[in-house]
């Protein structure tokens, strides 16, 4: 009886918030497509709750984590909207787990253990989603570090051949337009677009560095901005020194990814081992009992 009342209260609360929220917070289809949201239709009531509880003020650490990730992945202009939609998605999953926790005791013997399972899932699932978001940020940073040394080497070859820095940069970007989904070339293409739209070379390069939000990219842009006007051997030497540093970073990232791939294989191997152990030992035990 208690679980039925609690379930009814949760559903009534959600329906009331939905009636108010759907008028104030219409669902933005482009945002849901970019973020790959599965419960976007149920976002309005959660957005209303977020506004009422002032989650930015009450949970600044969580807000900073999500906001920073959205800024890095999608840009500062849309970070606020994307953060709110992502947080609404988290609350929707937590709400569904609480509903599941109320339904489970009604279908079984009515013990509190069923609700406890739902409550634990309501905490663990949003935490896992936030961790997955931070992993995407780390993955993006690693992709930038892996590709940047190769891009720099191409620039060095073109500058050695007599091209200016701007032309060398343009040629490298033009050659990689087919890889526009890669985070480095995506930001470089946007930088070239801003440059052609009226920004100075320095302004567009600085914006490129801010969007990437990686220390090594900042060092790359700073090195070019400090030396590209000089040209000549000094500039090439500076780029080569930077290239050696970036290649070491790339090796370190490759080692980390290799270790991660190896660790992911441990669990399947353990499971296969136990399955084989059961298959081998079961006939032996049956023969002994016989």
Automatic annotation (TrEMBL):
GO cellular component terms given for this protein: plasma membrane
Major subcellular location class: membrane
Sorted UniProt keywords: Cell membrane, Membrane, Transmembrane, Transmembrane helix
Pfam families, alphabetized: T2SSF (PF00482)
Membrane topology category: Multi-pass membrane protein
Localization in the cell: Cell membrane
Location of the Type II secretion system protein GspF domain: 151-283
Membrane-traversing stretches: 86-106, 112-130, 265-286
InterPro entries: T2SS_GspF_dom (IPR018076)
Protein origin, superkingdom: Bacteria
Record flagged with keyword Transmembrane helix: yes
Name this protein carries in UniProt: Type II secretion protein F
Key word Membrane present: yes
PANTHER family: INTEGRAL MEMBRANE PROTEIN-RELATED (PTHR35007), PILUS ASSEMBLE PROTEIN (PTHR35007:SF2)
């Amino acid at each position: 009886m208690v679980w039925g009342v609690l379930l009814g209260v949760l559903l009534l609360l959600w329906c009331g918030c939905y009636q108010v929220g759907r008028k104030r917070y219409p669902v933005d289809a482009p945002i849901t497509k970019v973020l790959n949201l599965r419960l976007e239709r149920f976002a309005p009531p959660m957005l209303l709750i977020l506004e009422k509880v002032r989650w930015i003020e009450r949970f600044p650490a969580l807000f900073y984590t999500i906001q920073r990730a959205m800024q890095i992945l999608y840009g500062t202009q849309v970070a606020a909207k994307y953060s709110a939609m992502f947080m609404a998605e988290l609350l929707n999953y937590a709400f569904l787990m609480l509903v599941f926790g109320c339904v489970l005791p009604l279908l079984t013997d009515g013990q509190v253990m069923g609700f406890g399972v739902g409550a634990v899932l309501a905490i663990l699932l949003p935490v896992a989603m936030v961790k997955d978001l931070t992993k995407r940020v780390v993955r993006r940073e690693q992709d930038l570090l892996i590709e940047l040394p190769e891009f720099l080497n191409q620039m060095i070859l073109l500058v050695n051949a007599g091209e200016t820095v701007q032309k060398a940069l343009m040629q490298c970007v033009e050659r990689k337009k087919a890889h526009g989904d890669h985070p480095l070339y995506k930001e470089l293409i946007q930088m070239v677009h801003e440059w052609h739209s009226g920004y100075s070379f320095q302004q567009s390069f600085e914006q490129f560095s801010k969007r990437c939000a990686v220390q090594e990219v900042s060092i790359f842009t700073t090195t070019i901005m400090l030396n590209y006007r000089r040209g000549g051997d000094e500039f090439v030497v500076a780029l080569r020194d930077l290239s050696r540093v970036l290649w070491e970073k790339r090796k370190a990232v490759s080692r980390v990814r290799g270790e991660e791939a190896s660790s992911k294989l441990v669990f399947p191997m353990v499971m296969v081992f136990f399955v084989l152990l059961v298959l081998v030992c079961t006939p032996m035990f049956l023969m002994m009992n016989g």
